[in-house]
Amino acid sequence: AVVLVFCVAGFGAVTVYTGNPPWATVTHWTLAMTLLAVLATAAIRAGALGGASARSQHVEPRTFRSARGAAAIAFIAVVFGGLTAKVPGGAVACRNFPLCGVNPDVAGSSVGIQVTHRLIALFLLLHVIGMLMAGRKRKDSAVVKRAVYVLLGIVLTQGLVAGAMIGMHLPPVVRSMHEAVGVAIWLSAYTLAYLARIAAGMTPLSDGGTAPRGAPLPPRTPMSGAGEQAMAGVSQMARPHSVAVFVARGAGGEA
Length: 255
What we know:
By secondary structure, the chain is mainly alpha-helical. It has helices spanning 2-17, 22-45, 51-54, 61-86, 108-138, 142-167, 172-199, 225-236, 241-251, and strands at 202-204, 210-212. Strands 1-2 form a two-stranded antiparallel sheet.
């Protein structure tokens, strides 16, 4: 995250010095979205944003794949949103909502970019609704279901903001609100995908290894009286569990 902060700041300077061309603005926008994703990853690993709950809950691998798809669609939608805002004529290419109502004074490429942005947003909405319905059948974990509900609510809010923006003829305040809600969509979709990854992933063991969630632990090897005494002594010295097992088994003549 620290590295990305400097990258975003440096490329912001490049964007200004080059006169804010579409390619530089969208690249700067994409780097900023990546920075948010890295910060969300750090927060989830620290137990925030549902990370602590996801470690003790479970989802099927299909749920993780669906969540990962939602994050990918959200990222593409955000990128095309940046293109729509910066390409000449892109913001005013469609005069109606939800239908386009093509503006005849705008180039066809600009119309295509905005229509593509709207289609991707619609596909994201349908994908999230499908995740919600499938999650009820699969009985996914509560933290993942809650993240799906949050994402669905933000996507629906974005539809209302987009309609108001077009109907009010693109006022700057509503345009900024549209961009902010788009960022929230990407952040919530990425958080959903990462929580699903944890819930469907691997559970750390005491020796630093990993095993599938729900897999049985290795059976404990019986130890002699000397081994039990050695293990108790090492435990009092606050040694790691794996070292204690190794020393105890060695003392019992079983290593």
